[in-house]
Here is the input.
Amino acid sequence: MGHLDHATFGWLTPVLSYLMACIGAALGLRCTLRALETRGGSRRNWLITAASAIGSGIWTMHFVAMLGFGVVGTDIRFDVTLTILSLLVAMGVVGAGVFAVAHGRHRVRALLLGGLTTGLGIAGMHYLGMAALRLHATLRYDPLLVTLSIAIAVVAATAALWAALSITAPIAVAAASLVMGAAVSSMHYTGMLATTVQVEPSREELPGATAMQFVFPLAVGLGSYLFLTAAFVALSPTARERAAHASAGRTPGPAATPR
Here is the structure.
């Protein structure tokens, strides 16, 4: 069996990956809340932003953590097509879950369906990302731990969507985001714990790109997107603030004092 190292850079990659998951979750929750305050095209746009934020945060969490992943006895490369596909899966399936919750007529049913869909999307992204690994080794998975990781993803996604529907206070949203980030990280490392590697030494050159050639620049780009989108959401007025501003604009001024 090959020796797996999940933190070749020490605590840097686990902590940074957790922060990215928290930022994505916080942004997604805020955008979902904004969506529920609106209708029509505006709601659709907020939901798309929420899905892209949560999906980007989850994907970035996974691959930042994978920057610290190493196997003694073999180099590691990443299949570019599968890696990009894992990002699209994360955004697409999370988007389906978010839209199901926002447009569902029966709240509990929509929440359960959205949580299941989103959780399976998170798990699918993780294992598709693992399938993108190219190394001189054979990967095997413990079925029990794989099942546990999927269950964690579904529970975490359902809790996050419930928070999006039920929590409005900024402090509560921040706390929910920290919990969501911890749950996503737990799912990732449970999935990694399920992995064993049988190294097969070879001198053949591995296909694919190195982490620094491909994964790192893409993770930095998505991280920048999350920070910029977070700034936009923080600065844009809420529906309540716009209504208050419009109401103030319609308020008649004091009567002129006759001369």
User: Anything to note?
Assistant: The first helix runs from residue 12 to 36. The chain is about 70% helix and 10% strand. Strands lie at 4-5, 70-71, 76-78, 133-135, 137-141, 195-199.
